[in-house]
Amino acid sequence: MGEEKPTVVFVLGAPGAGKGTQCEKIVNEFGFVHLSAGDLLREERNTPGSEYGELIENHIRNGTIVPVEITCSLLQNAMNKSETKKFLIDGFPRNENNLEGWNRVMGNKVNLKFVLFFDCPEEVCVDRCLKRGAAGSGRSDDNEDSLKKSLPPPLQWHSGCLQTHCDLIHTSMIQCQSLNTTTKNTLYVRLMLIIQKMRFLIL
User: Fold this and answer.
1) Which of 96, 104, 131, 203 has the fewest CB atoms within 10 Å, counting from its CB?
2) CA distances (Å), 99 to each of 1, 95, 111, 160, in order?
3) What pTM did the predictor assign?
């Protein structure tokens, strides 16, 4: 990745909390590259001949967490391919094991600046993901059974792992009570204010 360490911002929250939507806005406003851990895993799952494809699919379908070594490898490869060196890493890490694995593999290779955590009610997340699935998202985990299994880890990470490391990194929690057009716009304004305050960390 060269001598200059890439800048990393973790973007956390449950599936359907609006991470991807808001990351797209940050990309347009501040020139970050958006790396979705889930998208990278799905891409690897769909790659013909992938040695991890079946394993990844089983974890996604069952709402469990893919081994951290696989996710870190996919993230590192994506970062290496990018000319831009500012990254929003969406949906990772999901628990302390993920964070420990990240620190072991990537801790000395990047500058982790801060964390954005989207705190959204479970019923809102489930409803949004089910609608996304019904609209043809193509995600095998956009069903109620998988969602019920996958929703707890980000909250556990926030209450445990995140609090453990809050003295090391700046953290901003963003409340997402609903995700209609009005609240999405309000959320965007709130998010931009947070990013503006954090600009001294990322520029």
Assistant:
1) 203
2) 21, 6, 14, 12
3) 0.78
